[in-house]
Amino acid sequence: IHKEFHSKEFSKLGGMFEMVQLWINLPQKHKMTNPKYQDIKSDDIPVLEIGKYSMLRLISGEYENENGAASTFTKINLYDLISKSEDEISISLSSGTNSILLILNGEITLSENKHTKNSILIFEKEGETLTFRSSTDFKGLLLNGTPIEEPMVAHGPFVMNTREEIIQAIQDYEEGTMGTL
After folding, report:
1. What distance in Å separates the CA atoms of residue 88 and residue 43, rounded to the nearest whole number?
2. Cys-Cys crosslink for 138: which of 23, 60, 106, 124, Cβ 3.0 to 4.6 Å?
3. Residue 98 in 3-state DSSP?
4. pLDDT digits (tens, 9 = 90+) for 79-121
C-alpha cells in the first residue's frame, strides 16, 4: 500500500498540491530488487542558484559537486528548475546522456523557439550544455541520465527485458508474490 503524507497544517487547511510521479526503469540485473519508497522532504533537497533569478532543486544525481537527496541504481539527475523572473539559464550535462525537460509552468525560449506549459522537450545525446531563456514564474523538471541500452518489453505497468520476463511479472503480480513495501 502506497500512501502520501502531508503536513498536519495542509491536511487541516488544504491548498494547492502539485506532484509528479516517476517510474524509473532499472538495468536487468536489478529488476528483481525489492521495491523501496524514498520519503524525501523539501528540506532534504539541496538548492543551487543558476542564473540571476533562478534555482535548481537537486532531487537526485549531482550538480556542481552537490549530491541530490534520492538514491538511484544508475546515474539519474533529476532537477526541479524554478525562475522567479525572466532569466538566462545554462545547465551543464554529460555528453551521451538522455535528457528530457517537462515544462510545468511558464515558458522557455530555446534556439529562438518558444515552448510553453505542458511541453515535453527531448534532447539529442550530443552536447554538454543546455541553455535557454525562462519566463517569469517558469517551473520545469529536467530528467537526465545514462542510457541503459538494454531491450525493453512493456505490458501495462510492467517493463522488463524479454516477453518471458513480462509473463513472469504478470504471474507474480496475480499470485501476490511481487513483494511488499
Report:
1. 26
2. 106
3. strand
4. 999 999 999 999 999 989 999 999 999 999 999 999 999 999 9
Q: Apex CA 71: angle with CA 84 and CA 78, to 5°? A: 30
C-alpha cell at 88: 538566462
C-alpha 108/C-alpha 117 separation (Å) is 9
- Give per-residue pLDDT as tens, 124-173: 888 789 999 999 999 999 999 999 999 999 998 888 999 999 999 899 88
Rg from Cα positions in the chain: 19
Write down the residue that cell numbers 527485458 correspond to: 161
The owner of cell 500512501 is 3
**How far is 133 from 143, CA to CA, in rounded Å?**
18
Buried b (16+ CB within 10 A) or exposed e, 37-52: eeeeeeeebeeeebbe
Q: Which residues contact 30 (CB under 8 A, 6 or more apart)?
A: 73
Strand, coil or helix: what is 10?
Answer: helix
Q: What is the pTM of this model?
A: 0.83
Say how far apart CA 166 and CA 152 lie, in whole Å.
10
- Span 64-75, mean pLDDT? 92
Strands (E), the chain: 47-49, 54-60, 62-63, 66-67, 76-83, 87-92, 98-105, 107-110, 113-116, 120-123, 129-134, 138-145, 153-155, 158-160
